[in-house]
Amino acid sequence: MKSTLNQQIQQFYDASSALWEQIWGEHMHHGYYGPEGNLKTERRQAQIDLIEELLKWGLDQTTPTPKILDVGCGIGGSSLYLAEKLNARVTGITLSPVQAQRAGDRAAEARLSQNVNFQVANALAMPFEDESFDLVWSLESGEHMPNKIQFLQECHRVLKPGGTFLMATWCHRPLGGDPGQLTDAERHHLAQIYQVYALPYVISLPEYQAIATRVGFNNIDTADWSKAVAPFWDIVIDSAFDPAAIFGLLISGPSTIRAALSLGLMSQGYEQGLIRFGLLRGTK
After folding, report:
1. Helix or strand or coil: residue 106?
2. pLDDT band for position 233 (50/70/90)?
3. Nearest partner of 207 among 272, 142, 133, 144, judged by Cα
4. Which of 104, 44, 94, 48 is nearest to 74 (CA)?
5. Which of 76, 114, 134, 241 has its CA 20 to 30 A from that of 261?
6. Residue 37: DSSP 8-state
7. Mean pLDDT of 224-243
8. Which residues does residue 277 pair with via DSSP β-bridges, in sequence order?
9. Which of these, 266, 37, 71, lies nearest to 171 by C-alpha position?
10. Helix, strand, coil shares of the chain as percentages rounded to 5?
């Protein structure tokens, strides 16, 4: 089951990454539109703003982080940005050979090949020694992990003592309280998202916090930035009607077409309070 899911993820990103880069740029993640989501920021700038805000929120930038791991690196957008901004050596991992190749090419174009390297690797069994990295960065990759406990265990294992783990990921709403457990309609909505984006399942932010505590992270902080990022999906939906995007979709294959036609699932999920954008920071 796990290998089949990994193959689905690989195939999804092998097929869609070139189109995403052509139409939407190198950053395959949400944008940041201010705490209340009301800033009218240009979309690519909003994606850079998300990286900057994450760093402000979760990392003491006065402490050097010479070695960084980017878990789920896409085509290297965050890796290259972090390498330059933090003067660091960055290793990026992805399940997609197409992404790893393109990320390496982009590093060469940016003359950063000495500082950044990319490889195909499974985040649940990373090919790195214990205590290898000063910062483990996971920007919208946790939702793809079929075993969230094993994922956080691996991130903790490869982190150096005193290092920082910084994650942003898709979540569903917290359980309990007045809303209670997920309704059948909510489960159906999530199941549609899982199918479209090759996700095994998502969990709530409090569940991530419990796992992080369990695997040994210290100084754990969490935050919900759903309002700040929710406008991203409506902007992407609008851009999908650009003629170049439509042509790209037609030649990119059925999985990418399904994903584009289902963009509204994420927008609606945020509107209903079902989909949440969760942040987690911990140290070792």
Report:
1. helix
2. confident
3. 142
4. 94
5. 76
6. S
7. 83
8. 170
9. 266
10. 50, 20, 30
Tell the residue number behind the tokens 């940005």, with chain if given.
Answer: 81
Strands in the chain per DSSP E? 67-71, 89-94, 116-120, 133-139, 159-172, 218-224, 275-283
Looking at the predicted structure, is the pLDDT value of residue 262 above 60?
yes
Q: Which of 33-37, 73-77, 278-282 has the lowest mean pLDDT?
A: 73-77
User: Is the per-residue pLDDT at 157 higher than 80?
Assistant: yes
Q: Which residues contact 23 (CB under 8 A, 6 or more apart)?
A: 239, 240, 242, 244, 245, 248
Taking residues 189-209, what's their average pLDDT? Answer: 94
Global pTM reads 0.91
C-alpha–C-alpha distance, residues 135 and 281, integer Å: 11
Q: In what order do the strands lie in the sheet with 159-172?
A: 116-120, 89-94, 67-71, 133-139, 159-172, 275-283, 218-224
pLDDT (mean) for 135-155: 97
Nearest CA-CA partner of 245 in 16, 76, 74, 73: 16
Distance CA 243, CA 240 (A): 8
Beta strands 275-283; 218-224: pairing state: antiparallel
